[in-house]
Amino acid sequence: MILFRQALRFTSRLPFICGRCRTYSAQVGSVERVISAFRSVSGDEGVSVGSAVREQHGRDESVHICRPPDVVVFPRSVEEVSALAKICHHHQLPMIPFGTGTGLEGGVGALKGGVCFSLRKMEQVLDLHQEDFDVTVEPGVTRKGLNSYLRDTGLWFPVDPGADASLCGMAATSASGTNAVRYGTMRENVLNLEVVLADGTVLHTAGKGRRPRKTSAGYNLTNLFVGSEGTLGIITKATLRLYGIPESMVSAVCSFPSVQSAVDSTVQILQAGVSIARIEFLDDVMINACNRFNNLSYAVTPTLFLEFHGSSKSMQEQVSITEEITRDNGGSDFAWAEDEETRGRLWKARHDAWYAALALRPGCKAYSTDVCVPISRLPQIIVETKEDLIRNNITGPIAGHVGDGNFHCLIVLDPNDPDEVQRVHSFTERLARRALAMDGTCTGEHGIGLGKRALLREEVGPSAIEVMLGLKASLDPKNLMNPGKVKGWVSRVPSHFRSPCCTR
Amino acid sequence: MILFRQALRFTSRLPFICGRCRTYSAQVGSVERVISAFRSVSGDEGVSVGSAVREQHGRDESVHICRPPDVVVFPRSVEEVSALAKICHHHQLPMIPFGTGTGLEGGVGALKGGVCFSLRKMEQVLDLHQEDFDVTVEPGVTRKGLNSYLRDTGLWFPVDPGADASLCGMAATSASGTNAVRYGTMRENVLNLEVVLADGTVLHTAGKGRRPRKTSAGYNLTNLFVGSEGTLGIITKATLRLYGIPESMVSAVCSFPSVQSAVDSTVQILQAGVSIARIEFLDDVMINACNRFNNLSYAVTPTLFLEFHGSSKSMQEQVSITEEITRDNGGSDFAWAEDEETRGRLWKARHDAWYAALALRPGCKAYSTDVCVPISRLPQIIVETKEDLIRNNITGPIAGHVGDGNFHCLIVLDPNDPDEVQRVHSFTERLARRALAMDGTCTGEHGIGLGKRALLREEVGPSAIEVMLGLKASLDPKNLMNPGKVKGWVSRVPSHFRSPCCTR
Questions:
Q1: Of the candidates A121, A425, B328, B411, which lies 20 to 30 Å from A90 by C-alpha distance?
Q2: pLDDT by residue (tens digit) across B298-332?
Q3: Which of residues 269-298 of A touch B (CB under 8 A)?
Q4: Nearest to A217 among B205, B221, B448 (CB)
Q5: What is the DSSP secondary structure assignment for residue A245, as one 8-state letter?
Q6: Distance between CA A454 and CA B49 in Å, rounded?
Q7: In total, how many domains does chain B have?
């Protein structure tokens, strides 16, 4: 009974309020009718208005405050997603897709309330084609889940953002991570998507069931939805490229006297055509944190962690070339490992970076920035950023996918200290603008979400924003898909997003 | 004087006619005013209405009939392209971008007349960043031109469709070719585009001057324009990824008893992680044609041509793994070469395939089909296609980028024989539908152009066509950019493409 009253309290404002401007509207129906319609599609257990469930679906792993939806639905199939979307469309209710909640820019926050589509019950791995190196997954399937499923096939999906994220969520945010330098990001590894549009239409971006490795047929809808962060539709299936598991993997670590020498080594390793799969940079602060967290004794200097993928015989040569390049650039303490256990130990330091950073200030929270610049600009931006961190008394060890020019400050802050929060906010904006001034981007892999809406406009310019808004209006004229994100890219509300009540 | 009269004759219908429905409109100005406006932007030598120039710009290398524009303009800068586009937009004149005219699906045909933007005078290589592995080029720069420019840098641009095409044109058609199995297609290798939209707006798809290797910032406009075939805007600059020239390249050739065994070898080579850069299939008819054309003596059976890129030391191992795989699949006559001269001789057979096919029937024309299927379906589709060719008495040797599942029939036909033209037309449609029935695409790299408009609808389905039309309407509401191509994707004219006169 308490739950029921609570449900009514939380949902009473839902169907009476315009999903866009939050003013009352006489056009929409009653609470009961909407909830009942949802339940007729997904059953009682497929609809939740409980506060704990809603709060759980209003936040990701970032420091953005929780913005819970009014209702959470748990569809079990694309047909249910489509039917639920049609109800939302009819009642003009915002729709926010939710995978695993491992995003880092607040992309799942229900800024305008509305309905969260939690997709975890759609968890089938479908249509594995081993000979064709492709597989289709539902949105409840995670990266580790897929690789576990593939264990005995000799294949794997290499894109690795660190978190065990939903693969469809990774597509939605154009995720990448440590392996991108060799295998690319989600942009290069999604062959087809099934998407439910705002009005419930089911779209197959490359045509239903199609999975050629390349195509020139019509506009590239697949890559329009990859990185669209739920603002154009709900991804309900992704067809992905797979790769043969390399015969051999060798890892190495090397210390450098300066950021410049580590980056110079990176450029030369890439130019030499070494079969590098990961090339990760950790600054002295990060290495120090890793040493303390994992009881290690790496030299506290800029450091590269590397991984080579290829045939057993070629590994020795790859390692030799790399060692020679690093030595020529002043690198030292070069150590490499082939067996899985030693490799695992070596990479543990890198994988634990987030927790190592957190351990620097127990009780605090971590926030990861995410900029990407042309590789040659890395030394300057990292040096300037480190000076900025020191000047503003911010704890922010640096780790980065240096082969792509992408790096993160893992900022550890006390969220209850408004002064520190403000200093961190100002720092992250300065960092993003520094990247923009160096021909780079304010986000290499985390997405725009809530945190970078203003920065996007600075990055791409007004013409590109206008084009993006036009595309959004074309696909979602009522602005129901994850609203508040795209509209936040402009300071004014464009006319095509205004509903009748919004124009008052 | 003759030229002037001729000009008037050719252009007299131009500014008085609606660019979409070809009916007269009182809204637009006079001949003299439009031509004069063009000349005020690009000078007398930058505007041509001569019939030879117009005809040269109304065709590509396909068998589609020439559809000349009314005027050809030769802008020298993005500012000129923008100013010319504004004039066209004001007068509602169709605009068709033209690079080198090496397309294969009639994409440059001026179906509705209008203004051809020949971009050959914009031929600068701009902003080479060696350390960052990127370069920006204008649309007059060709693939070979860029690689010649890069000769002393240790870098190259590997996407190789065969023709010496304009790089911006390659972006517009999402081209690829022999190296795609290792280096990807244009989709994976364009970092940023400068585009002039229908109303003259200059758009930078990833923001002006930006060139990070990856980004998650907003919608992926770059890959919306890659493959848009001039229907959304005119590409005036492309920022491209470059690669280090591999230390060593080794080529090999191997004969097989069947298509199946050649394809099985391909799958196993890919799965073994061999550093393969090209893996090209030629059927028995193609090999026979090559033997005759180049005075060679390859066994007349299905054949693979391969190329490995990597370090010198690793080459021996790569070749050994490959030789073992091919031998296990019944391959024979395995021959490999490392020195440039022998490699050149070996690849000459593959590169001359087009001319070797043409030489089978002197005086005839060649037409290249272009389908792509998941690799496992290649044996079946190739066998069925060969039976179809024989049954219908069509000369069509097969060559393909088998690592991507992409192949071509190089059909040689007499264009003056209507019965043969009809047989070839029916054959190509059957071939495309065979690819569609096997989860594939009707075009892997040539694009939709004129030839495959109906097939695209079958491939992606009505929902995707509606979305594509919506995107087109959003970016080019007057349907002025290369008109007749996108609109041809539907049988009816959607309302948002109708101009005032079209609605009569």
A1: A121
A2: 999 999 999 999 888 888 888 999 999 999 999 99
A3: 270-275
A4: B448
A5: P
A6: 47
A7: 3
CB contact under 8 A, B470 and A470: no
> Are residue A215 and residue A329 in the same domain, yes or no?
no
In a shared domain, residues B282 and B375:
yes
Q: Give residue-wise pLDDT tens across range A419-451.
A: 999 999 999 999 999 999 999 999 999 999 988
- B132 with B163, same domain: the answer is yes
- Rounded CA-CA distance B251/B244 in Å is 18
Q: Is residue B486 part of a domain?
A: no
Q: Which residues, listed in sequence order, are joined to residue A156 by a DSSP beta bridge?
A: A243
Longest distance between any two alpha carbons in chain B, whole Å: 73
Q: Residue B490: what pLDDT?
A: 64
Q: Residue B435: pLDDT above 60? A: yes
The confidence score (pLDDT) of residue B275 equals: 81
Across the interface, which of A211, A217, A436 has its CB nearest the CB of B439? A211
Nearest Cα of chain B lies from the Cα of A154 at a distance, in angstroms, of: 8
Q: Are residues A350 and A380 in the same domain?
A: yes
CA A311 – CA B39 distance, rounded (Å): 61
Residues 53-72 (A) with a CB less than 8 A from some CB of B: none
Q: Would residue A81 count as lying in a domain?
A: yes
> Residue A467's closest CA among A489, A438, A500?
A489
In this predicted model, what pLDDT tens digit does every residue of B132-143 receive, in sequence order? 999 999 999 999
Residues A392/A423, Cβ–Cβ less than 8 Å: yes
* Domain end (from B118, B145, B177): B118
What are the residues facing B234 on neighbouring strands?
Answer: B196
Quote the tokens at residue B55: 């005809």
Q: In the structure encoding, which two tokens stand for residue A274, read together?
A: 């070494």
User: Is B45 exposed, middle or buried (CB count within 10 Å of its CB: 0-12, 13-18, 19+)?
Assistant: exposed
Nearest Cα residue in chain B from A461? B207
Closest residue, chain A, to B246 (C-alpha): A273
User: What range defines the domain where residue A168 resides?
Assistant: 125-244
Dist. CA A230–CA B320, nearest whole Å: 48
CATH for B84? 3.30.43.10
Which residue of chain B has the CA closest to A215? Answer: B444
Cβ atoms of B169 and B445 closer than 8 Å: no
Task: Give alpha helix (H) positions in A179-280.
Answer: 180-183, 186-189, 221-225, 259-271
A30 and A111 assigned to the same domain? yes
Given B99, B118, B137, the domain boundary residue is: B118
Specify the pLDDT at position B463. 96
Q: Kindly state the average pLDDT of the residues A221-239.
A: 98
| Contacts of residue A389, Cβ cutoff 8 Å, sequence gap at least 6 | A395, A396, A409, A427
Tell me the per-residue pLDDT of B449-493, one tens digit each, with 9 for 90 and over. 988 999 999 999 999 999 999 999 999 999 999 998 876 776 433
Q: How confident is the model at residue A247 (pLDDT cuts 50, 70, 90)?
A: confident
User: From the CB of residue A53, how many other CB atoms can be counted at a distance below 10 Å?
Assistant: 18
**Is residue B493 one of the residues assigned to a domain?**
no
Alpha-carbon span B184 to B31, nearest angstrom: 46
- In this structure, the answer to whether residues B238 and B328 fall within a common structural domain is no
Mean residue pLDDT of chain B comes to 90
Question: Phi and psi of A272, rounded to 5°?
Answer: -75, -5
Q: Does residue B171 sit at the A interface (CB-CB below 8 Å)?
A: no
Dihedral-angle region of residue A283 (phi above 0 means left; psi in -120 to 50 means alpha; beta otherwise): beta
Check which CATH number belongs to the domain holding A168 and give it. Answer: 3.30.465.10
The residue of A193, A194, A219, A482 whose CB has the most chain B CBs within 10 angstroms, and thus the best one to mutate to test that interface, is A219
Retrieve residue B34's tokens.
């439009």
Residue B475 maps to a domain: no
* pLDDT tens column, B235-273: 999 999 999 998 889 999 999 999 999 999 998 998 888
Q: Does A310 touch chain B (CB under 8 A)?
A: yes
